[in-house]
Structures are given as structure tokens and as C-alpha cells.
Amino acid sequence: MKPISYEATTLDAVFSALSDPTRRAILARLAHGEATVKELAAPFNVSQPAISKHLKILENTGLIARGQIRQSRPAYLRAEPMKEAMNWLTEFRRFWGVSFDQLDHLLETLNDDGKDTHDHE
User: Fold this and answer.
1) How far apart are CA 74 and CA 34, in angstroms?
2) Own/partner long-range contacts of 86-92 (Cβ < 8 Å, ≥24 apart)
3) pLDDT tens-place values along the chain, 121 residues long
4) How many Cα neighbours within 13 Å face the side chain of 111?
């Protein structure tokens, strides 16, 4: 098995940023287009300054960037840092595939055993 390589600081920052449900919701919203702090705060029961703190974390991680339109600073998604996290997670896809294949085989075996038992009754 080859070692899994990754840049720990970037990966740690991305997973830390994604660990908060509000930040995940913000990223999901930004996947549909840029938005202002006011627009991002609307669905939440939190203040605009609280949303601004979440945006700062996402911006420091590189998951979003901020523009400048007159007085507004809309945020927009920058998904590049997620690529490293996805690459890291992909290494574990093989594990889940094998595990599910083993579970399928076990269930088929149990199902076949159950059929044999009923056929002999």
C-alpha cells in the first residue's frame, strides 16, 4: 500500500472549516453564485457579524474569496482547496468499496443459507 501524501496544514484548515454546519451551509449557498453578508445571514438565526466571522475563516482557508462592488463585498466560492481533501478522502473509497463488497457477499450467503433451510422443511 502506498503512503497517503497531503499537505497537512491545508488539509487541516479545510477540514476545520468544513466542520461547522453554518460554514458548510454558506459554501452550499455560494455554490449557486456569489452573495453578500446580508444575503448569507438571511437564512440563519445569527447576526451579520457572526456570518462575517465564518466568512473570514472560509476566506483564510481559501474556500471563498471576496469581491468589491461599490460598498458591497460579495463572497464567492473557490473550491480548489477542497480538491486536496477530496483526494485524501478518495484514498479511503477503496476501503468502503471492499467493505461493501464483503457485506454484499455475506448477505448473499445468509440469504442463500436461508433459502436452503426453507427448501428442506
Assistant:
1) 6
2) 87/6, 88/4, 88/6, 88/11, 91/4
3) 555 555 568 889 999 999 999 999 999 999 999 999 999 999 998 899 999 999 999 999 999 999 877 777 899 999 888 888 888 888 877 777 676 777 777 788 887 766 644 555 5
4) 6
* Residue 38, C-beta contacts closer than 8 angstroms, at least 6 positions apart: 48
Q: Is the pTM of this model over 0.90?
A: no
Q: Quick one: which of 19, 22, 32, 20 has its CA closest to 79?
A: 32
Beta carbons of 30 and 8 less than 8 angstroms apart:
no
Q: Helix, strand, or coil here: 32?
A: coil
In 14-118, which ranges are E strands?
A: 64-66, 75-77
**Directed axis angle between helix 8-18 and helix 80-119, to 10°?**
70
The rounded distance, in Å, linking the Cα atoms of 76 and 54 is 13
